[in-house]
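Input for the complex:
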Amino acid sequence: MKEKLIPIGIVGYFLVMIALIGVLGWYWQNFQKTPQQPIEFPHNVHVGKLKLDCQFCHQFASKSRFATVPTVKLCVDCHKTAATDRPEVKKLMKYWEDQIPIEWLKVYSFRKNANVNFSHKPHIRAGVDCSTCHGRVDQMITARKTRNINMGFCVSCHRQAKAPTDCWTCHK
Amino acid sequence: MKRRDFLKVVGVASSATLLSSCGVEKSTEKLIPFLVPPDEDYIPGQATYYGSTCTECPANCGVSVKVVDFNPIKLEGLADHPVNRGALCLRGQSSILRLYHPDRVKQPLKRGPDGQFQPVSWEEALQQVVQALKDASGAGRSNVYLSGRTTGSLSRLLDDFAKETRVERLPEYEPFSHVNLREAYRLVFGRKEIPFFRIEEADFLLTVGVDLLETFVSPVSYAHQLGRAKARDDFHWVHFEPHASLTGFQADQRFVVRPGSEAYLMGFLLHYILTNGLNKKRIPPEITNALPKVDVNLVAEKTGLDAEVLNRLAARLAEARTPLVLSGGVSVHQKNGLETAVLTALLQWALGATDRVVDFSRAENYASVGSVKDVQKLVERLSRGEIGVLLVSRANPVGTLPASVALAEAMAKAGFRVALTDFVDETARQCDLILPLSHSLESWGDAEPRKGLLNLIQPTVEPIFNTLSEGDILLAIADGYRGRPNVLSYQQWLLREWNRAYGEAFVEEFLKKGFFEFPAKPLPLGLNRPALTAFLKAARLDAPPQGHWLYAMPSLRMFDGRSKVLKLTSEIPDPLTTISYGEWITVSDETAERLGVQDRDEVAFLREGTRLALPVKVQPGLNGEVSTIHWDQLDRAFLEMDPRSGELLAVVAEGQLQKTGKKIAVPILSGSMEEAYERGIFPDHNGHGMKHHAEVRETLYPPHEHPEYRWAMTIDLEKCIGCSACVAACYVENNVAIVGEQEHLKGREMAWIRIEPFYGKDRDREMNFMVMLCQQCCNAPCETVCPVYATMHNPEGLNAMVYNRCVGTRYCHNNCPYKVRRFNWFDHHWETPLDRMLNPDVFVRHKGVMEKCTFCVQRIRVARDHAKDENRKIRDGEVIPACAQTCPTEAIVFGNLLDETARVTQLAHSDRSYRVFEEIGTEPAVYYLRKKEIKDEA
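Predicted:
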C-alpha cells in the first residue's frame, strides 16, 4: 500500500501544481494587480458617476498616437473648487502648489523591442470604444490592466473589423 | 544524496520557482504629464516644422526644421526659398549632428595655470573679457575681432559692439573667400562682388574648373538650376578641367585640358569673339589692344585640345542665344587664376551675359569678407605686439591658413585671446578663453546670403549645453564694458531692429515664412577701363611648364574641412571614388601604370622638401600630369597666397610623384566601377537593354494584387549629379547607424541608398551615377528565400521588412540582385545627446536583423492619416520620401503607379524609362530614366 501511495502522491503533487499554474496564469492574464499610483484617482467617480468623456482628460487620443494623461493644470482647474476636502485632492493641490509634475505609473505599454507602432488616433476615428482594450474603467477605482494587449488580440479585432492586417500597419 | 531524492528536490524546487515567477508584473515605466499645457498647437508625437537657416556653410540655404516632442530631428530645404528651392545638400542634412555633437564645447573654458582648460561660469568668463578689453585699451594696445563670414543683423550688431567697446572689426576670414573672383569683377566692372549666375536661363553653359555642384558659393542653388536647365532640350553644357570633379562629369561634354592652361582657353574665346566681331557688347580698343592675342594654334598647343573642336566650340558660344561662361574653384586657385577670372568676366560682358544671366542685383553677400592678405597684416601687427585682446569667432584660421602665415606663433604675442566657437579647434587651442556658441537651431538671428534676401534663424530647441549665441555674448560684453546692466537679450534686440527697419507687418510675415525677398534694383554696369587696362598689360597667362601637379579640390563632404567633425560626412563615401573614411590621392590610369601602383598603394608627392604620402586611388578622366586630393587633406605647407589678391592657391605645381612601396587599408566601397555596361545596369543610347528589348523571365509565383496603391519611384539619371544629399537625408530620416571606418573596411556600411559611379569606355568623358536602393520588387528574390517570412510583399507594393520575425539568416541579402540589404552585426548606440535626433517613427534596429529601404513608409503612414481624416485617398505628391525631398535637381519622383495622372506614372511610361536587371523578372518598382542622347556635340 505504502509503495503505491508514493507514486500517487508524486503524480498528484504535480497535477495540483500544473492546475495551480494554469489557474494563476489565467488569473494573471486577466486581473493584474492594481498599480500603486501616487494619487488614488477614482475613475469610477469621474467616468461612472460624473459621466465625463474619456477624452475630456485624455485629450490627445483622437489627435495623436498617445492618449496622454492630463496636465496638472487641467486637474486643478476643476479641483480648485470641487471636492477640495478629500485627502487625495489635497495631495493633488500640493503637487500644484509645489509645481512638481505627478509621476503616474504606466498601466499599458508595449515591450520596446516589440517594435509596435500603435496610434490611438485611427482607432478613435474608426469608432472603437475605449473599453474594447481598456476594460470597464468606469467600474474601477485605479485603472488596471484587464486584458493582455498582444498581437493575437490586435489581429483578431483587425480581422473582424476588416482593418488592414499588413505587417507595416502596426510595426514600424 | 540518492538519485531519486535529488530528482524529488529538483521537482519541488522547480515547480516552486515556476509559481513564484507567475507573480505580478510591476510597471516601472512612468507617465509624467506637463504641469501646464506647453503650446496651443503642440500635439505629442507629431512633427511641427519651423523655418530657419542652415549655417553649415556660407550659402545659407533656407531650412525647415522638423521638431518632434521638442527635439529637432531633421533638416529639410525650405520650399520656395530663393536659394535652395526646398533642397538641401549632404552637409546641410548632416548639420543636425553638429547640434547634438557630444564633443561640442559644453561650457565656457578658461586656460588654467597648468595650461589645461577648466570650466568657468559665464559671468566670470564675460567679466574677464571686459577686464581684458579695458586693460588693453588702457595700455594703448588695440583690440581686434576676427570672425567668419557674418551677414544681416549680426553684422550690424558687431559694428555697434566695435564702436561701444573700441574693438576693431577686421575683414572676415573664410578659406573659400572667392577673392580672386571678386577682385576680377572689381577690375572689370568696379564691383568687388560675386554676382548671382542664372544658369537656369542659359542655353549654352561653358564652365572652366568651377565646382558648381560641390562647394561653389551656393552649390544647392546651382544644382537646382542645372536640374531645371537639363530638363529642357535646348540646354547644352561644356566643361573644361585638368582634374576630375563631380561637376565635370555631369556636363554634356567634358574636355580634359593641360593643367594651368585655363587662362589661355579664356583668352582664346575672347580673342575669337572679338576678332570675328561676334561680341554683343562693345569693348573699347584700349582694352582690346591690351588683351593677350591667343589664336587657335596657341591655345591648342597649351591646352592639348584639338584646334578644330576649339573653333567649333567658340563659334557655338558666339551663336548661342543666352550663353554663360563661368570659371571658379580650382581654375582660379592657382597662380594665373586671377587672369582666368578677369578674362571670364570680360567674356561675360562681351557675350552680353551681364544683361541677363550674370546678376549683380542679387550678388552674393561677401562684402565684409577679406582675404589671406588681411590675416597677414594681422600677423604683422601681432608680431609687433600691437594687439591687446584678439577675439576669434566662427573661424579656424590657424587650422586652414598656409603654413607660411605663422598666425599661431604670432597669437602668442597678443595680450589675451578669446575664441567663440562650438568645437575646440586649432585656433581655440591657442586661446586663453573659449566661449561656447549655441548652434543656429538654438538661437535667434537672421542671415543675408544675397543682396535683398533676409533669412530667419529661429530657435527650435532649448540650448543643449551651457552655451550662448554670439549676439547675446556681444550684448553682454558691450554692457559690461559700459558698466550697464545687461537687460536686452539678442532676441529682443533683433525684434527691435526688425521692427525699426522694416515695420511690424514685415516681422509677422517674416517669422511665418522664414525668409523675405526684397525687390531687386537693377544695376547699371560699365567697364572699369583704367584698372582693367593696367591689369591686362601686366597679365601673365603662363603656367609652370613641367612636373606633376597636385589639385586640392574643395570637398563636397567636408567643405573647407569644417564639416569633418560631423561623423556622417565621413560615413558617406565620396561619390567619384566611393572612398568613405581616410585620405587618398588620385592618379590617372597612365600615371598608375608608369609608377606601377594600384589602388591603396602609397605614393608620395614631393615639392621643395615638402612631402605628402597618401594611398592611391586610380581616377579615370584625369590628365596624366595631375593628381587630386580633397582640400581638407592638403598639407598646409603646400598652400600659398596670390600676393595680388590674397587668394589661397591650392593648385600645387612642379612636384614629383614617387612610389613608397607601402600599402594602406582604404575603404573603397564599390567593387567595380566598370562592368555596368555589359551587365545591363545602363542601357546604351540606342535603347539597347531597355524593357521592350529585354526578355523577361517567367515567375512561378501567383501575381500580387495591389487594390489601392502601388508605390513606385522614378530616378532621372540625366539629372542625378551624384551629390549624395539623398544618402545623408536617408541616414538622418531612418536612424541608419553610423558604423565607422573599421566596419567599412569589412564592407559593412549600413546606407540604405547609395551612389555608384560607373566609368564608361571613354573614361575621360563617359561617367554615370547609379542610385541604388531597395527596388521594392514585385517578385522579390529576397522574399522567397526567407525561412521565417520576415520580408514580404504588402498590398501597396512595398517589400515589407518585419524586424520582429527576422532571425538573421542573411539569405535575403545573398539572394538580392541589387545588394541593397544591410545586416546589423552589432547593436548600435547613439552617444548622448545624439540619441535625441532619432526619428521616433522609425524603429532602431538591433543586433542580428536585416534592414533596408522602406520607401519611407513612416511618411506614407502620415499621409494616409491626413487623407483618412479628410476621407479621401492620398493625393499625388503628398508622400515625398526623404531622398526625393532633398534632391537638389529634383531627379527623384515618388507616387502611386495605379494613379494614371500621377507624375511618377507618366515618367515611368516615358521613352527613357527602364528598370535595372529587368530581364531576371524581379519587376522592380524603381524606374530609371536613362541619360538623354547628346545630339549636337560641338
